[in-house]
Amino acid sequence: MKCPPNPNYNKFVKPDGYKDIGWQVNLDNLDKKKCYESGHNMKDGQITEFDNSLFLWRCTDVIRLCSVCKIVDHTDMSD
Fold first, then answer.
1. Which end of the chain is least crowded, N or C, by CB within 10 Å?
2. In the chain, how many domains are there?
3. CB distance 68 to 16 below 8 Å
């Protein structure tokens, strides 16, 4: 079964004033670690996600934005 294209692919625009800290898979990045340790989360609305993957439901480029820390990071959550 072929995956349908993601209409959001390559449409992400980094908000002004945000720092893109690149691809993250752990807390080695100090900016990401500080954000995590501060307790910022999606439930409280500080963190939002944008699926920038080429295909729908593949999660090959999930972009997370923290509105408090003003950081953007990317994660490949595909199988």
1. N
2. 1
3. no
